[in-house]
Amino acid sequence: MVGLVGGGARAWRLSDEAANGAGGGGAATEADYMRRLHGHAPGENQCTSALVKHIKAPVHLVWSLVRSFDQPQRYKPFVSRCVVRGGDLEIGSVREVNVKTGLPATTSTERLEQLDDDEHILSVKFVGGDHRLRNYYAGVKAV
After folding, report:
1. DSSP reduced 3-state for 104
2. How many CA atoms lie within 13 A of 21 on its CB side?
3. What is the DSSP letter of 125?
4. Which terms does the record give in the GO molecular function aspect (predicted)?
5. Domain residue limits at 36
6. Mean pLDDT throughout 30-43?
7. What is the pLDDT of residues 112-135, one digit of tens each?
8. Phi and psi angles of residue 18, each rounded to the nearest 5 degrees, phi first
9. Rounded to whole angstroms, how far apart are CA atoms 21 and 4?
């Protein structure tokens, strides 16, 4: 399973689904992972969303693709190009991402906030670009 978390267009919570018994077995576990990954509750005029995707592949294989902060195009088909400023891949590194045409933006500047190889967590803050995302974080957790 890979969970993608970030500011989204609608206020839907995986934990609500788990509490209602929807989503089949394991939903409570997924909700726990999402709560750990978020780190804060959304405030007024904020929203949150989660996308959970089950992938039939070993976690180490999925993580080897997802953890590549310098190559998001390996698993994000809408990314056409990525350049990391400064060359180092560590917390605080910044990447310039170009996205393919047809999306409402063409560039995004993103900072690496968390990279945890033990927990398989990658977290990124969007710090610039020609999109409307402000105070936006995205995280990925492979389990």
Report:
1. coil
2. 0
3. E
4. abscisic acid binding; protein phosphatase inhibitor activity; signaling receptor activity
5. 2-142
6. 64
7. 999 999 999 999 999 999 988 888
8. -65, -40
9. 21
Q: How far is CA 121 from the centre of its chain?
A: 9
Helix (H, G, I), strand (E, B) or coil at 114: strand
Separation of alpha carbons 98 and 83, rounded Å: 9
- pTM (2 decimals)? 0.71
CATH of the domain at 134: 3.30.530.20
DSSP assignments along 58-80, one per residue: -HHHHHHHHT-TT-GGGT-TTEE
Count of domains forming the chain: 1
Q: How far is CA 105 from the centre of its chain?
A: 17
Cα 89 from Cα 27, distance rounded (Å): 33
Q: What angle do CA 44, 35, 60 make, to 5 degrees?
A: 135
Residue from 86, 140, 83 nearest 113 by CA: 140
Nearest CA among 86, 70, 16, 18 for reference residue 48: 16
